[in-house]
Amino acid sequence: MRGLTVRCILHGGRPMPLNPTLDLKNGSTPIMITIDQSCVERFLRYVSFDTQSSEESASYPSTEKQKILGRQLVEELREMGLADAGMDEWGYVTATLPANAGHSVPVIGLIAHMDTSPEVSGADVKPVIHKNYQGGDLNLPAGVVIRADETPELARQLGNDIITSDGNTLLGADNKAGIAEIFSAIRYLIDHPEIAHGRLRIAVTPDEEVGRGTEHFDVKGFGADFAYTIDGETLGEVEDETFCADSVTITISGVNLHPGYAKGKLVNATRIAARLIANLPQDALSPETTSGREGYIHPHHLTGTVEEAVIKFLIRDFTVEGLKEKETLLQQWAGEAMKSYPKARMDFRVDESYRNMKYEINKEPRVVEYALEAVQRAGITPIRNIIRGGTDGSRLSYQGLLTPNIFTGGHNFHSRQEWISIQDMQKAVQVIVLLAAVWAEKAAPVA
Fold this sequence. Notes:
Elements: E1 9-11, E2 21-26, E3 29-34, H1 38-46, H2 65-79, E4 86-87, E5 93-97, E6 108-113, E7 128-130, E8 138-139, E9 145-146, E10 162-164, H3 173-191, E11 200-205, H4 219-222, E12 226-232, E13 237-242, E14 244-253, H5 269-278, E15 296-304, E16 308-317, H6 320-338, E17 345-354, H7 358-361, H8 366-377, E18 383-387, H9 392-398, E19 405-407, E20 410-411, E21 419-421, H10 422-443
Parallel strand pairs: 1-7, 6-11, 6-12, 12-19, 13-18
Antiparallel strand pairs: 2-3, 4-5, 5-11, 7-10, 8-9, 10-21, 13-19, 14-16, 14-17, 15-16, 20-21
Helix pairs in contact: 1-3, 3-10, 5-6, 8-10
């Protein structure tokens, strides 16, 4: 393992609680699970790596710097004794924890992603630990404020320890917390062979944030019967439903001339793009105006010159029918904007991203039921929820590997206001350990 210096600012005066415990009911024998601070230490180490992916790159992974963390992860897995740990040419890190149960158990995959969002910098992350949170706003050193009235999840964190960045970058809990939690659970199972489990396959993927996380993932070679992404948010959540997602790229071609002699001739592509965006609904169909099962049309990237402007949209809905309706609406609106500019041309391209995994996961109820049971055994109220987004599990489920999503404890992903609770991270580790035990227990032959 290469040496790393982890910079971390501490706020508050109470030491972080050590060794949260719970009873694992393995058959009739209670086993005490004690989670130490190694998960937090791993997480703070991983966020020091800049692994931002890129939507503009045609390579895979989209940024080579993701592989730097990948090599670190391989080294850590091998140090834990997982001899087959490795990283392939595409940047996928995989490893195996052999089964120790005395009977056949389905092979379970545990998956997280190493890249961070291209929308906010993940370089030179400086974590801040706010100890013994007592309510109110979280003021970050760079002047960013996480406002309690805009973040209701904070009300459930009283007395807990919260990690943020310093406000200059995102934190990287999405999804380096998931990596840390999986690795810590594997370490615990290695150290506690009294907990029976089946064969566990570990995978850390690149490029999830740009919708390409499974592009070269070898499902057959991975060899799992079922899998879980550890990529959710709120404590206790098990998510088995995602958006259906497409991307739309509108390219507008204008006519460029010297502006001094352009009257009646110049057609400004950027001006047309601006008109199209301005004509979108102001109080509906956008991320900032929708919640629950409402979908949206989200212009998230614009580049423009007089000669060409490109607008990129995210289209989201929980049904394919709703997705197509929104794309038809957008195409109609774009056509209306073009009517005033007969010399301009427009290209409207739709690219499929992923589909709602619920349609596939419903075919095998155990994969969700066992996750909910693991959460409950950890002393947490299970929350079956939808994802207003997507995970690698969306595509994997359609490739035959049913993959619901489990919480990490992180919040406000893709932003400088991102935060995660240390205590919730430790609970996530417990749930992963319990999940492995539940599968082994349920597969045991009836006496």
